[in-house]
Amino acid sequence: METVLGFDFGLKRIGVAVGNTLLKQAQPLAVIRAATNDEKFATIAELMQQWKPALCVVGLPLHPDGAEHEMTARCRRFANQLHGRFDVATVLVDERYSSAVISHQRGDTIDDQAAAIILQQYFDGISQ
User: Fold this and answer.
1) What are the residue boundaries of the YqgF/RNase H-like domain, all occurrences included (predicted)?
2) Which residue range is the domain that position 30 belongs to?
3) How many structural domains is the chain composed of?
4) What is the CA radius of gyration of the chain?
């Protein structure tokens, strides 16, 4: 059994979810709100130390037709930084519509729930 952290990257907030390879059930964990990149990664470092994940899953935003855009590149860079800073394997998962699905259910901050959907998509994909 290995722990997996999921991330919904945003410029203002980063949603985080947690799950493991035994149960394959994602749960919302935290929303990181930090003013600077250093503050964001300091908070992520605390989560990495606490949960010791074997893998990080990062949502990859795309246009509905699958085309990449500015945030796609930023998310790829974020995933590369996770891998480089924490020496943990990182996987990108298509996150189209993950935030939209949650926002229809809740009107408040949804980043951790979106991270859970992204992580659950990963688990569902490896279960097949």
Assistant:
1) 2-102
2) 3-127
3) 1
4) 13
